[in-house]
């Protein structure tokens, strides 16, 4: 007897078990079969498995393009992606074939913000260098000030892109008693303004900041927004942390 449940194709087999189990209570779940021995997913793999499916559940790393949508046929109604971004999904083709898209906005806001703050601390306090010296025998004796790095307190912090993640980074860094908090955004961010943040231009932020955090999504407006010319205007000891979403944000 054929199942009356909607069929869902999982692009990967390593999604959280809890999520897969939940899907199985309401859907007929199928896992993509891969043809290549190295485990890499090909477009043809998806095209071979997708006919008759109601939905595809995917994540960044594999493009859902027109070839896949065409192979799916009229049964495909929804694509779900376990991500905030959906650069890997061909929105034009989805509209053409009448397929809807679901994503998971906000799910990684705090995670990414904490990683950004962690990278700032690790870099300015030279954790990576100190760890390497310990492992390679470079630490032989106590030297005053060795590997202490610089303080975040009293510094100028600039955040390129103040959406949800940028705002969360600002909320965390303000507790380090920074002297100035600069940010860029399409419009004034009231939450960051309430923290003392100043809306400035990209050029001003790059020139004035001791720490620059790139928290932008990649698009035509942000591509190469951090380039060699702007880097040349930064303070000689400034630190740049990039947690922007997309394949490339920097030149």
Question: Your description of this structure?
Answer:
This protein is of the alpha/beta class and 251 residues long. The protein has ten helices and ten strands. The chain has helices at 17-26, 43-49, 66-72, 91-97, 109-124, 127-136, 164-173, 190-194, 202-208, 228-231, and strands spanning 7-10, 28-31, 55-58, 78-81, 100-102, 156-160, 180-184, 198-199, 211-214, 239-242. β7 (180-184), α8 and β8 (198-199) form a beta-alpha-beta unit. The model has no long low-confidence stretch (mean pLDDT 91).
SSE blueprint and pairings:
Elements: E1 7-10, H1 17-26, E2 28-31, H2 43-49, E3 55-58, H3 66-72, E4 78-81, H4 91-97, E5 100-102, H5 109-124, H6 127-136, E6 156-160, H7 164-173, E7 180-184, H8 190-194, E8 198-199, H9 202-208, E9 211-214, H10 228-231, E10 239-242
Helix pairs in contact: 2-3, 5-7
